[in-house]
Amino acid sequence: EVGILAKSYIDQGRLIPDDIMTQLMLSELKGLDRYNWLLDGFPRTVAQAEALDKECQIDTVIDLDVPFETIKCRLTARWIHPASGRVYNLEFSPPKVQGIDDITGEPLVQRDDDKPETVTKRLQAYDAQTKPVLEYYRKKGLLKSFSGTETNKIWPHIYAFLQTKLPDVSQKDATTPR
Questions:
Q1: Fold of 1-79+111-164
Q2: How confident is the model at residue 178 (pLDDT cuts 50, 70, 90)?
Q3: What is the C-alpha to C-alpha distance for residues 37 and 51, in angstroms, rounded to an integer?
C-alpha cells in the first residue's frame, strides 16, 4: 500500500511526504545498529533529518554536488524494457536499434518519472528541500561535499574519504550494494 502511494507522488514529479518516507526508512533501519550502512537520497528534508537523528547516530553525510543539467540528461536518456526490467541509456548504454529492446525486439518505454518535465519538477523540489538539510548537517560538522559530473572521477575521492571512516572496508565490500 505504501509503495503504491509513494509511486503516485513520484509519477506526478512530487517528492514523497516526510511522514511516509520517514516511516519507510526508519522501519528498514531497525536492527541495523551493529552494522555500518549508507543511505542514498535520505533524508531530503530537515524534518526527516531530525527524525533520523532521534533514532540513529549519524557519523557523516556525503553530498554529491552534480549539476542539475547533468542529472537531467542522464535521467531523461534512460529507457526500459518493461517486461524484463532491462535498462538502456541513450548516452552510455544504448540499445542496438533506437527504441527497441536488444533481446526481444519489443518497444522500449520511458518511465513517467524519467520524462523531462517530471525530472525538472523533481529536481526543483529536491533543490528547495535539500539545501536546508545540507546546512543542517554542515552546522553539525558532518557534511563532506564532492563535486563533479562523472562517477569514475568522483568515486575515487569518495572511496578514499570512506576509508578514513571505515578503514576495514575492502574495495569489494564498497562496490557491493546491500
A1: Rossmann fold (3.40.50)
A2: very low
A3: 17
Amino acid at 152: N
Q: How far apart are CA 76 and CA 168, in angstroms?
A: 38
CB 133 within 8 A of CB 43: yes
Q: pLDDT digits over 29-54, tens only? A: 888 878 888 898 899 899 999 999 99
Cβ atoms of 155 and 144 within 8 Å: the answer is: no
Q: Where are the domains of the chain?
A: 1-79+111-164
Q: How far apart are CA 15 and CA 66, in angstroms?
A: 19
pTM (2 d.p.)? 0.70
Amino acid at 154: I
Query: Is the CA virtual torsion 143, 148, 151, 152 positive or negative?
Result: negative
Q: By the 8 A CB rule, do 122 and 13 touch?
A: yes
> Angle formed by the axes of helices 46-55 and 18-29, to 10°?
30
Nearest-angstrom CA–CA distance, 159 and 169:
10
Query: Grid coordinates standing for 84?
Result: 524484463
7 phi and psi angles, rounded to 5 deg: -60, -35
